[in-house]
Amino acid sequence: MSLGGALHQEPGQPGRTEAGGGEATSEAVGDEATLARHAQTDCGAIDLLGQALARENMARAWKRVKANEGSAGVDGRTVLDTGEHLKTAWPGIRAGLLDGSCRPEPVRRVGIPKPGGGTRELGIPTVVDRLIQQALLQVMQPLIDPTFSEHSHGFRPGRSAHGAVLEAQQYMQAGYRTVVDVDLEKFFDRVNHDILMDRLAKRIADKRVLRLIRRYLQAGILAHGVHSERFEGTPQGGPLSPLLGNVLLDEVDRELERRGHRFVRYADDCNVYVRSPKAGERVLQALRGCYARLRLLVNESKTAVAQVWGRKFLGYCFWAYKDEAKRAVATQALDKLRERIRQLTRRTRGRSLEQIAEDLRGYVPGWKAYFRLAQTPKVMRELDEWLRHRLRAVQLTQWKRGTTVFRELRRLGASVDLAARIAGNARRWWRNSRMGLNMLLPIAYFDRLGVPRFS
């Protein structure tokens, strides 16, 4: 029996609804506009759990979980192992979800280094729990997302960090050049379960779904072999966490809108744009009160009221050019990029230029796509020059001996004098990579290797 067959529901089984029935395809749960309209008129009439467990929705959720891959949870089962497990176990899991007896497994806690230092704690659910959460997300998001503020951009369909950056730039262009840059202290670890569930219950009425989500919030944590209970927080790593975070923080968004402020929020990063530092201090004081009502803490060491120029937001910063606000890559993001490029082009890695080019193709295009809004072509050209400089130095290193350097340079068309001068200083990799080698290994050479460009 295939996994698709294991997730199949026969007509007449509990939880089967028209919206989640056989007329839908595996690529869609149903008409999102219809779902949103029902949510606004008669939310209680929608059997969300039944829709979540419908065959087409589960198939789509499994496809997403497989695509995301990810680590195993506390049960040790990988995505592949879980696929085999579900072929026989899914009917019992589904029955437990419908009758309320199903209990989520604890999450596996892992720490990953943060770019600015420190560690970010992630909670990795089992693949089965990730599948169920993804299925819930797919039916809840079309209902809840339309109720969010238009100034919220994080983890929402059709929205991205780029939209947040562009909106922030518009406020600066309009003259709002003082920013209230708010950082929340360990937001996902401090979410109050009772407050979150109260806000969520105002948006959906299926009590079985609410009960299941609370159980996911209260699922324990396994770290270093020790199991502990959790009384607050929604662990980063589960598909539902971003949506739940938006549900909680939308209350702050609405208060800012009510006061007529110009702001942008991406997940727990919120920037409010005002005309003066004095106005910014007033806004910050009001925000402290809003967050306190949600039992959230402002990280005072990272929160500031400051001029917009040079402030980092989602990896970007802004600079003034003829009284216009221009977008640029933040210094911290450039430093991180350079460090990664140094790792990939380290002369002691023992990889050929062709292999290094392949490694770069796995990193640079994604970085370039994210920072494509940067209005700094000179910086991108300098990055290209610096990368090619490093690759030329790698090539010299791989030739090693002076006789090999001389022979290979002559093969590339160097004069006897130039080849002899470079070979005579064969150990000065960085200096020699500029000494005429840029003509022998030109841009076209690296283009043929498939080295990606920044500009």
Describe this structure as you would to a colleague.
This protein has 455 residues and is α+β, with helices and mostly antiparallel strands. It contains 21 helices and 10 strands. The strands form 3 sheets. Strands 2-1-4-5 form a 4-stranded mixed beta sheet, with no helix packed on it. Helix 9 (193-201) packs antiparallel against helix 10 and helix 9 (193-201) crosses helix 11 (241-258). The longest helix is centred in the last third of the chain and has 23 residues, at 377-399. 35% of the residues are buried. The model is unreliable at 9-45 (pLDDT under 50).
- Secondary structure: helix percent: 40-55%
What would the average pLDDT be, to the nearest integer? 85
Based on CA atoms alone, the radius of gyration comes out at: 27 Å
How far apart, in Å, are the first and last alpha carbons?
51 Å
Low-confidence stretches: 9-45
Number of helices: 21
Q: Per the principal axes of the C-alpha atoms, what is the gross shape?
A: globular
Would you count the extended β strands for me?
A: 10
Proportion of residues in β-strands: 5-15%
**SS content category:** alpha+beta
Largest sheet: 4 strands, mixed
Strand order of the largest sheet: 2-1-4-5
Entry keywords:
single chain; 455 residues; alpha+beta; four-stranded mixed sheet; four-stranded antiparallel sheet; 10 strands; globular
